[in-house]
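Example A, followed by Example B.
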Amino acid sequence: MKYKRVLLKLSGESLMGKKSFGIDNQRLNDYAQQIKDIYDAGVEIAIVIGGGNIFRGVQAEEGGMDRTHGDYMGMLATMINSMALQAALESAGIDSRLQSAIEMKEIAEPFVRRRAVRHLEKGRVVIFGAGTGNPYFTTDSAACLRAIEINADVILKGTRVDGIYTADPEKDPSAKKFDSITFDDVYENGLKVMDMTAFTLCKENDLPIIVFDMDTSGNLKKVLLGETVGTVVSN
């Protein structure tokens, strides 16, 4: 495998599958199986998952709710997804631990960096829930922060699009895909990969990002094997 320790970032919306809300069990089990494929190959895996299939703090603010209040609700949504993913992983025979940035001692360990690294070294998948534990930060920012803290080799951003394009491929059929691109080129071309806080964290800490289509079974393993899947963003 090309990478030894990875952080996999999944969007909450992708868990909906063909549903309009909530969690599609078939999609969840497919993700668990893809993760098992690389887990069995000895890759150390940490995961951050969003909560957009249940609740988004930004939407709450648009409806008149205080942003801080909405963001905390969004963090709780990520915990629901994290628990669902943990259950699916354990059903697939994967030993896992869930750590939360907000104390929820009945359902998750508190986030402790050294403990998270130890779990990874012992062959456990670690899921980081509740974002950074602070409002005004996205789960993309949480993924980048945790990846840096655990010394991950790469961030794997699983989406429904197979990489980064010159424009939105769902709206512009002439959009061209990049196999690789630099952080500076993403800035200059105004391409949407992650929010700027997350993106800048990765650039400043020389942490590459691979954006790929997680909804196609087998893609995650192909990325780890070094095949040209998705788009690599690096310095």
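Example B, a separate protein, is given below in the same form.
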Amino acid sequence: MATADKKLTKRQQQFKTMLESLPSTVTAKDAVESLKQILKANSKFNESIECHIRLGIDVKKADQMVRSTVDLPEGTGKTVRVAVIAKGDKEKEALAAGAVLAGGDELIERIQKDATVLAEFDVLVATPDMMAALAKVARILGPKGLMPNPKGGTVTAAVGETVKALQGGKVEFRADKQGIVHVGIGKRDFTEAQILKNFSALYDAILRNKPSGAKGTYVKSVTLSSTMGPGIPVDTTKLALEIKEYLN
């Protein structure tokens, strides 16, 4: 065994052996099938399935920002806790839809005085009329990725509909500083078909949100992985055609 391999854990060695049996790139279907086999043999908990897409964009240019939302048809496999900043009937609408927290100025004040309240929810939605008041806690929400944003679909008057959509599988995606989009598309206990449906919905949404200023190859690479597992590169040359089978 090579010296480098001696430093690998038993689990990592198993990953390496399984990956070496695969071509350098595979179809999305084959990648998901291989990922499921790896998880079945090596995972003891319900790991997340993740998709990482490297885009050919210049992240320094505002007109090449890639940020939007997509409804994953099979959900995320997670319980999403939604809080809403709203007043009056909109507050009642949010609570009726299943929001874990809802309120106006008093909820903003609570966030301002006690940041531990952020641990009570995963996504924050706000009505447009509350955004000016919410600005006072932007420095608290921003670093946690919780500041509502129109592009992320979290600034809206349709709070009830949005709460239900977020709980049902609506997720935000955005390119990071390296131009890579990272999104969880399922869990270990999802079927291959469920993962492929979610992956196809995400990939299609990214294609539809291609910035007009992006030049050259838009999708440079696609990798599927699990929380603690290896990444499996997907062949992108026929991917747009492959996903049509799984799109509704």
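On Example B: The CA atoms of residues 11 and 246 lie 32 Å apart.
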